TrEMBL record:
The keyword Transferase applies. It comes from Lacrimispora celerecrescens. Its cofactor is Mg(2+). Keywords: Magnesium, Metal-binding, Nucleotide-binding, Nucleotidyltransferase, RNA-binding, Transferase, tRNA processing. InterPro entries: Bact_CCA-adding_enz_type3_sf (IPR050264), CCA-adding_enz_C (IPR032810), NT_sf (IPR043519), PolA_pol_head_dom (IPR002646), PolyA_RNA-bd (IPR032828). This is Polynucleotide adenylyltransferase.
């Protein structure tokens, strides 16, 4: 069984071998290669200790040296090289209190989470698969290495990783592995919200985002947050998620669409999502149920409140989740919005033919009244794009000012 290892990673392995050490690519890159998927990272495991790795290679970074990891820089890319190790006790349910370096590859593979992630490969030795990872790949099964209760007790984040991998790969969970999840679920309270969020986001961005139900069905929700748990009680059709693009704010909005906007924001803030995703999700959750009239002034009004990208996301979102009675009108809305963009209609205040500076130069005092005038001019332009010329708008401004008297 041959795996195409990138040239730089192969050079690292060969250099370690030449120096008298074992070395293999390991974990996810082996799994993905066997599945015909493109690995994101190529991690290397070796019998060389960190200080020996640093002696062998000219350019290294101590990225996790206390756990045996040194990043080797080759051709401006970094490759994590980690010494074979045995983990000590996991006192906090997340991290080993200590690690012990070993010269035995199988001891290193034995500490890993799932059989499909516990394989190693080198061109010299071929595939090392001591825990039947290939069999589980062929059977499309997520199975813990050894006793699932032990693996999840060591690191509770593995619970979410099991569900996330099942979603990404479309695999089922082996019975004992699934049963252990419910038993160890309370340990999720020990895991940082940032790490939980990363796993949940990867799950939502997968080809099977509806597997998020497994988080609730296995009793994990309450240990993430009470608000996250409450969101899982809302009825949602999981199969519709795949009709949304695998974009973070779109998939989170799909999950949270039945929440009140402020509740959606609270959940995302608890999970430490970034501000852009929180804003975009809040906007979609707030607007997706609002049917847009198939009338260009009304469409321009909505477009004026959103970025072009978020407006397109809103229409896509509505196509997926809005009632059939709105579908025909929604097609018209999309058609008209494209015509609005092609025509170059003014849908941004900054694109209006008159600015606040010009009103000041014409003698108007800065302040709330000027803001009111600018807004009235903008509403006029949204209604009638042909009015967006300086002469017409300056005359209209003079009239508005007189009316304010």
């Amino acid at each position: 069984m041959k795996i195409q290892v990138p040239e730089a990673a192969r050079r690292i392995i060969e250099q370690l071998n030449t120096s008298g050490f074992e070395a293999y690519v390991v974990g996810g890159c082996v799994r993905d290669s066997l599945l015909g998927r493109q690995p994101e990272d190529w991690d290397i495991t070796t019998s060389a200790k960190p200080e020996q790795v640093k002696e062998i290679f000219n350019r290294t970074v101590d990225t996790g040296i206390q756990h045996g990891t040194v990043t080797v820089l080759i051709d401006h890319e970094g490759y994590e090289v980690t010494t074979y190790r045995i983990d000590g006790e996991y006192e906090d349910g997340r991290h080993p209190k200590s690690v012990e370096f070993t010269g035995n590859l199988l001891e290193d593979l034995r500490r890993r989470d799932f059989t499909i992630n516990a394989m190693a490969y080198s061109d010299r030795e071929g595939l090392v698969d001591a825990f039947d990872g290939v069999k589980d790949l062929e059977g499309r099964v997520i199975r813990c290495v050894g006793n699932p209760l032990d693996r999840f007790t060591e690191d509770a984040l593995r619970i979410l990783r099991a569900i996330r991998f099942s979603a990404q790969l479309g695999f089922d969970m082996e019975a004992e592995t699934r049963a252990a999840i419910s038993v160890i679920a309370p340990n999720m309270a020990k895991v940082s919200k940032e790490r939980i969020q990363v796993e949940l986001t990867k799950l939502l961005l997968s080809d099977h985002p509806g597997r998020l139900k497994d988080v609730y069905e296995n009793g994990i929700g309450p240990y993430i947050s009470k608000h996250f748990e409450a969101a899982g009680r809302q009825p949602f059709k999981s199969e519709r998620f795949t009709e949304l693009p695998p974009v973070k704010h779109m998939r989170w909005s799909g999950f949270l669409r039945l929440e009140q906007p402020e509740d959606a924001v609270r959940i995302l803030k608890e999970l430490k999502l970034d501000n852009d995703t929180i804003y975009q999700t809040k906007t979609l959750v707030s607007l997706w149920k609002t049917e847009i009239p198939a009338h260009k002034p009304a469409i321009r009004q909505v477009m004026s409140t959103l970025s072009p990208e978020l407006f397109k996301d809103l229409l896509w979102f509505q196509k997926v989740f809005c009632p059939p009675s709105y579908k025909n009108r929604l097609e018209k809305v999309e058609q008209y919005s494209e015509e609005i963009l092609r025509a170059g209609d003014c849908i941004r205040l900054k694109d209006m033919a008159v600015t606040g500076r010009e009103l000041i130069d014409a003698g108007m005092k800065p302040g709330p009244e000027m803001g009111t005038v600018l807004n009235r001019l903008f509403q006029l332009v949204l209604e009638k794009p042909e009015c967006n010329n300086r002469e017409y708008l300056m005359k209209s401004a003079e009239q508005f000012i007189k009316e304010q008297g």
